[in-house]
Amino acid sequence: MKIIYSLFLILFIKTSLGDVSSTWTYNFDASSTIGNPLKGFVPYYYGTNSQPAVNFPHSMENQYFPMKSLMLGPNSFDFSAIETVLVNVANRNHHAIVRVYVDYPGRNLSISLPDFLWNGLTIYSGGSDQGLFPDYNNETLINAMVTLIHALGQKYDGDNRIGFWQVGFLGHWGEWHTYPNASNFASTAYQNQILSAFNSSFTKTKFQLRYFHVTGDNNATSWNVGFHDDSFFQDTYGEAWMFYERSISVGADAQWRNQPIGGEVRPELMPCVFANDPVTACQTITTLKPLNWSTCVQLTHSSYQWLSYAFNNPGFSGSDYDRAINGSIMQGYSFFVSEITAKEITCSGTSHVVRVGVTMSNVGVAPFYYLLMLNTKAVDTTTGSSISSKSISVPIVNQLDQKAFVYYFDMMVNTNTTIQFSTWLSSPHLVGNQTIVFAISGASATGVIQLPAISIGSCATLSVSAACTSYIADTKANGTQGTTYTISSDSSVFNNPCAMT
What we know:
The chain is an alpha/beta fold. The chain folds into two domains: 21-30 and 339-487, Immunoglobulins (Immunoglobulin-like), CATH 2.60.40; 40-270 and 304-329, TIM Barrel (Alpha-Beta Barrel), CATH 3.20.20. The chain contains nine helices and 22 strands. β16 and β17 form a beta hairpin. The radius of gyration is 26 Å and the shape is elongated. It starts with 20 loop residues before the first strand and ends in a 14-residue tail after the last strand.
């Protein structure tokens, strides 16, 4: 798949008594957003290596942690295993996806169940291919889990090295089931305890649960939790028991609007997921039947999926690789800037206030779930020095339903010179040198839109009102003063006390 870039730039500058009016417009193109943070395909953690065997673009790495490695006694913890992973992942400018488990089918239970919990604990056999698992209705075990969750939250809640935390703990792989021995799974009361512990301990870091309908005694919407479909592309939609249909049946199909959706592509289907004809291609390697990729993403509003096949030999190649790139891009957010304007709203001698308007929409399937800021800066091209900078929060409500908003920045310029404005997105939850690249043609990997330089000349000294004088003084300060936003279809922008007539 060859990607064609195109960029249309419209620029009109009028200088009359210092009056400047400029407009720049952009075309949509998401191809440069591959690798944007907190979205797309995810490999398993690859230790101290600089990259996985196949370096498919990614911004996160997934890692499971056995409970035993973290909890040595009833109130004794060792988080060095987590810390090692977080350091290595962050050094690669990636986020980690974390999950703690107690039993992992096919692995020895002694590796994952803490030694101090064995005494008096009933151990079940899950069959020849399931191995052993503990009694998830054992009060001592549940209390230990709750204690560990609180300790983990105290240590890691809000840690920007962590992208998402999957609840885990209960059931095989921490996936909240003991299939085919369903009767041995934790009671709703014990489920409540685990979820309550996460709800109170992780108020900043987004956490996720496996099933919409396995949420204790409370509805899925009662918890501040996202969800992960670990059989994506196979059990995602189509029947009443599947992931999407479950979200509808419990009234949580809008949970994605505030909480993230992720998961894992069904492993048996990974090699054929991006074949030209997945149904035919998958028939040669498995009896499982694939679904439609785009439909899976659009119905669930998936932000990310684990897809280990893409990162290991042989990985995807040719057209399959191109389709995989597109399949990664279409997940999560995608911020499109359609227009930027710069309009001088008052001028008196060498004092100018230029209002920069950025029309931006999220045309992706999901929002950016952490604090997000849109920033604008003015630089004197002669000296290279920053003249002013402003930032405004982009709330999640502005990132839904592909609605466009105009974000305004009133920038103070106290000199007659040539100015270059720039705009970019940022978040305190980004790690390392991560950037959020706009979905525009010719987008810079830095995530910054650099506007062409414009000349700001001298103007007559105007008689201005006291309100305008006060406003000019306010705009001299950097930060959020002199910023606002309005939906693009709303012509009534915020009051301008310095309107030039």
